[in-house]
Input
Amino acid sequence: MNRFAKRALRFLIVTALVYAIGCGVVAFAYRAFLYPAPHGPPPAIADATLIETKTNDGVTARALRIGPADATTAIVFFHGNGEIAESGEALARQLASHGYQVVLAEYRGYGISRAEGSPNERGLYADAEAICAAVNVPNDHLVLMGFSLGTGVATEMAARGHGRALVLLAPYTSIPEVAQRDVPFFPMNALMRDKLDSLSKAPSIDIPAFVAHGDRDEVVPFDMGETVAHAFPHNHFVAVSGATHMTLFQRDDHLVDQIVDFVIGAIPI
Output
């Protein structure tokens, strides 16, 4: 083997080793980026009722209820990855003003459930399922709603038979696909154990689905929301013009009204 071939081989070996180390770092550390739970004590919400229930893996799941406890229809809301349950207060109050009880679900490792361990896909599903079961309305009067990360949780609950209607705000096809677009040089689907694959579940979910996505979303690409929406057999898709990831309701003053109309059509009060 000549000198050039030896150098080329050495370069390839070093490159492969560095790449393998990089893959290992991604596989080990990605959850810190996927679940960046805010620090500090959660703010108190006046007149919110705390819901506590046990999950199938022995963890205490918690949620906050806003609105009339005797409302015949409940909306369970699953928040984004950089938020906590209390982050949904403003939206919850708007929805509650229409006569719904709104349950703001919390994830283990976040907010009022920070002490319940570290978040992961299986844990989020366990928390969500326990909270859905604890809401005091029949399943056919339960609405599942999610924003960003929470859309994958809401979709999984619908796939498990919970809820009569589904509302997704800024949804993704799957978490690895979002990551793949940001980090194209690593095999993210192979490295990430948390999939939250909504696209593969959507075709088998036979309840009405309302999907809204901003056409300037800088976090979850707009085309993902559109793709997921059309994968549901009974879907209503709203493209919010000019909206970024966090400005859906600011850019569309009528989005809450559209959601309420959708819920009324799916589940009359």
